[in-house]
Amino acid sequence: AQSVTQLGSHVSVSEGALVLLRCNYSSSVPPYLFWYVQYPNQGLQLLLKYTSAATLVKGINGFEAEFKKSETSFHLTKPSAHMSDAAEYFCAADFGNEKLTFGTGTRLTIIP
Amino acid sequence: DAGITQSPRHKVTETGTPVTLRCHQTENHRYMYWYRQDPGHGLRLIHYSYGVKDTDKGEVSDGYSVSRSKTEDFLLTLESATSSQTSVYFCAISWSGQRNTEAFFGQGTRLTVV
Predict the structure, then answer these.
(1) Which tens digit of pLDDT belongs to each residue from B40-53?
(2) A94 to chain B: which residues are within 8 Å by CB?
(3) pLDDT tens-digit series, residues B84-94
(4) In terms of CB atoms within 10 Å, which end of chain B has fewer, N or C?
(5) Is the peptide bond before A40 cis (omega within 30 degrees of 0)?
(6) Do B107 and A43 touch (CB under 8 A)?
(7) Residue A109 vs residues A12, A14, A83, B53, B77: alpha-carbon distances, Å
């Protein structure tokens, strides 16, 4: 079955430290992949997307993600965490069926 | 924000009553989606529409119906609300169902069934 898995429902990092949020997909054909961010009491907004043009994708707010087919992964990183990065992050995949399949989300907490 | 308005933003209703949530867009996007968000489950697709009067079920469609009589409006109806339908509901739009197309989300509707 096609699915998206996010490891770690909660991640805490210190301000200035590396942020690493994990996302893996299950599919025989690589999907298009997306990372969305949700701030408290708001909807989701797109951080970045992988559409096969390049395996390293840069997004807004200094985030980037690398698609690794051999690992079926699309992990989200940011070199230096900022307090404003505290939010919930969702990985999503389009498996070619006109809709997005979401992971269960990772809540990121930044420690001052 | 993309031109997406969800109404109401908050609602408390009693078990067994019908409830309709509205999603209105001003972007003339073809695709519209209803998701529910629950802790530990992320976002799960309820129903979606790929055009006026064209709808299809998502993974958690039981107990829900939808209608789309105009491009700009997509209604989600709970025919007889149950406590398990307490959730935050998000509408999303996309101009295309193609795989590289971004979806834009509304602000959400928090529904409580008591």
Answers:
(1) 899 999 999 999 99
(2) 99-100
(3) 999 999 999 98
(4) C
(5) no
(6) yes
(7) 5, 8, 8, 43, 36
- How far apart, in whole angstroms, are the C-alpha atoms of residue B60 and residue A83? 35
Q: Encoding tokens for residue A51?
A: 């559409």
Residue B71 C-alpha from the chain's centroid: 14
Give the residue carrying structure tokens 């797109």: A46
User: Are the beta carbons of A7 and A105 closer than 8 angstroms?
Assistant: no
The pLDDT of residue A103: 95
- Which amino acid is residue A3, in one-letter code? S
CB contact under 8 A, B42 and A31: no
How far does CA A99 lie from the centroid of its chain?
A: 17
- A104:B42 CB<8 A: yes
Q: What is the largest CA-CA distance in chain B?
A: 41
